[in-house]
């Protein structure tokens, strides 16, 4: 089912000037110029060692031209370990590049946009192996497998196969036989690639996460402020380590799982460690899930309890997302890694116009419940929300009905980074409207430079018109002739 763009009427400049969307909003000790926000979006433009590139600077600079209240720089890894082309903040050598990003956001928005950065930890995910590689290299055959194999092949009247011959025998079987002979986790490793989980207490790296993560997050946050960012967003959402601690599926038995308090323990310890390191004045908030959107996952009632706990522990904004989990992700092809935005929870996270449900504003019931709970307990912490908000009318309604304090728009801002300015200046009819078909997300999935399907393919040869590695796509949105920045740039008055 394809949902057409939401019909809308754009405001005049004077209506926009009176709106909540374009009114300043306080976040911690910072005032954002408007209640507009570009949430984290990984564009896959860092180097293979996690450093900032010109193309990454162009990406953030272009968003800044639209002058939203805040831009959250993509999920950035807190560890000093090879992470492919993921942006990194796990060592002081990353600070100079990150400082350029923060500076670029400030300069290109002419000081109107605050620069935040999302910091994350994730656990190893291996690619799906070939059956040969799995059985001959990774699998650990044991007595239980011999017994199950004999049951499976009983009609052949075979004796127990010697353990050393098990891998070869398994290779001759079918996937449904593998499923019956392997343990469920082993079958998953074969079918999807091995993925570490926070519940793997027999793995020392996983068992000791509560010892190492508070310090890693605190150090990374301190680097972010040293690099000139105005705020830090702790990534407690989607498929990554901290969200997995919060998950209802976290059954750790060491005090960091099981009950609601146990699942909250490490996230709160991380938040407190960050706060201790960066001091009371530095802006620290977090992104978490209002609903995990997976079988057995937590829902909005738990999310409201989490929100209260985060507010009590000093989070200065709460950004609400949904889903985006590994548990229901599509089975990857051999040689590829499982990707958390490919199942139903992925659709919940980035609703598409090809979904059964309409893509617009689908998370607002979550943020409304969270915000109402916070206010009823006396917490004024601002709530940020994204998910198919791509018109002024919907954004303004979300603010007026108390579902949000700040409107985040990811894909609409990608389709047209100037849309905030176009709407503010009464030129809404010029907005290039996102079609929510998730072409950009497909690129993200393959770790290719993220671009938008709606951008033209006219290359002007300049930095901002530079092409993607495949040579076919422009790397940033086309310029908007009406932009004050472009006028200023032509006259040499804008940096
Ligand atoms: C290309 C792409 C990359 C994304 N990367 C991140 C990320 O790094 N961190 C994050 O929390 N969300 C990420 N998201 C999710 C968005 O922040 C947002 O929650 C989601 O797209 C729904 O909002 P929208 O309907 O306004 O696009 C990404 C989304 C897209 C399209
Ligand atoms: S490619 Fe562009 S139009 Fe399509 S969903 Fe992404 S941002 Fe929207």
Characteristics of this structure?
alpha/beta, disordered C terminus, 10 strands, binds flavin mononucleotide, two-stranded antiparallel sheet, TIM Barrel, 10% strand, 20 helices, 495 residues, 8-stranded parallel barrel, binds iron/sulfur cluster
Main β-sheet description: 8 strands, parallel, barrel
Please identify the top-level CATH class of the largest domain: Alpha Beta
Question: How large, in whole angstroms, is the Cα Rg?
Answer: 24 Å
Strand content: 5-15%
* Secondary-structure element order, N to C: HEEEHEHEHHHHHHHEHHEHEHHEHEHHHH
Q: What percent of residues adopt helix (DSSP H or I)?
A: 25-40%
Total domain units: 2
Instruction: Output the structural class.
Output: alpha/beta
Which architecture of the largest domain would the CATH scheme give at its second level?
Alpha-Beta Barrel
Strand order of the largest sheet: 3-4-5-6-7-8-9-10
Record field, number of beta strands? 10
The multimeric state of the shown protein is single chain
CATH fold field value of the largest domain: TIM Barrel
Average pLDDT: 94
Task: Kindly describe this structure.
38% of the residues lie in helices and 10% in strands. Strands 3-4-5-6-7-8-9-10 form an 8-stranded parallel beta barrel, surrounded by 7 helices. Strands 1-2 form a two-stranded antiparallel ribbon. It folds into 2 domains: 388 residues, Aldolase class I (TIM Barrel), CATH 3.20.20.70; 62 residues, no CATH class. It has 495 residues and is of the alpha/beta class. The C terminus is likely disordered. It starts with 12 loop residues before the first helix and ends with a helix. It contains 20 helices and 10 strands. Helix 13 links the parallel strand 7 and strand 8. The longest helix is centred in the middle third of the chain and has 19 residues.
């Amino acid at each position: 089912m394809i949902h057409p763009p939401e019909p809308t009427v754009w405001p005049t400049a004077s209506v926009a000037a009176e709106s909540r969307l374009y009114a300043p909003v306080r976040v911690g000790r910072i005032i954002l110029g408007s209640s507009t926000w570009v949430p984290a979006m990984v564009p896959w433009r860092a180097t293979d060692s996690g450093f900032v590139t010109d193309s990454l600077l162009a990406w953030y600079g272009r968003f800044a031209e639209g002058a939203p209240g805040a831009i959250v720089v993509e999920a950035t890894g807190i560890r000093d370990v090879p992470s492919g082309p993921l942006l990194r903040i796990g060592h002081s050598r990353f600070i100079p590049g990150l400082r350029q990003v923060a500076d670029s956001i400030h300069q290109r928005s002419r000081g109107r946009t605050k620069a935040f950065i999302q910091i994350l930890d994730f656990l190893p995910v291996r690619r799906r192996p070939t059956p040969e590689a799995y059985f001959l290299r990774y699998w650990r055959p044991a007595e239980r497998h011999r017994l199950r194999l004999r049951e499976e092949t009983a009609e052949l009247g075979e004796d127990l196969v010697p353990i050393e011959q098990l891998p070869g025998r398994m290779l001759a079987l079918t996937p449904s036989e593998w499923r019956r002979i392997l343990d469920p986790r082993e079958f998953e490793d074969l079918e999807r690639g091995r993925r570490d989980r926070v519940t793997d207490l027999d793995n020392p790296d996983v068992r000791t996460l509560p010892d190492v993560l508070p310090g890693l997050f605190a150090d990374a946050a301190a680097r972010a402020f040293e690099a000139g960012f105005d705020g830090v967003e702790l990534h407690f959402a989607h498929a990554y380590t901290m969200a997995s601690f919060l998950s209802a599926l976290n059954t750790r038995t060491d005090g960091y799982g099981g009950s609601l308090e146990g699942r909250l323990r490490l996230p709160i310890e991380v938040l407190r460690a960050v706060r201790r390191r960066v001091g009371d004045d530095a802006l620290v908030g977090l992104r978490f899930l209002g609903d995990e959107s997976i079988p057995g996952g937590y829902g909005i009632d738990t999310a409201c309890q989490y929100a209260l706990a985060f507010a009590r522990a000093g989070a200065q904004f709460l950004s609400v997302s949904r889903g985006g989990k590994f548990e229901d992700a599509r089975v990857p092809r051999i040689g590829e890694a499982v990707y958390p935005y490919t199942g139903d929870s992925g659709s919940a996270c980035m609703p598409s116009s090809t979904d059964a449900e309409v893509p617009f504003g689908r998370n607002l019931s979550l943020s409304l419940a969270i915000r109402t709970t916070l206010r009823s307990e006396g917490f004024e912490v601002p709530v940020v929300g994204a998910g198919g908000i791509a018109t002024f009318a919907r954004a303004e309604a979300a603010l007026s009905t108390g579902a949000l304090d700040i409107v985040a728009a990811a894909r609409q801002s990608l389709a047209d980074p100037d849309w905030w300015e176009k709407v503010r200046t009464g030129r809404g009819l010029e907005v290039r409207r996102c079609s929510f078909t998730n072409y950009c997300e497909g690129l993200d999935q393959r770790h290719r430079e993220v671009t938008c399907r709606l951008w033209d393919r006219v290359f002007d040869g300049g930095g901002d018109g530079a092409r993607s590695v495949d040579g076919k796509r422009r790397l940033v949105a086309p310029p908007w002739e009406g932009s004050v920045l472009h006028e200023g740039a032509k006259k040499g008055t804008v940096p």
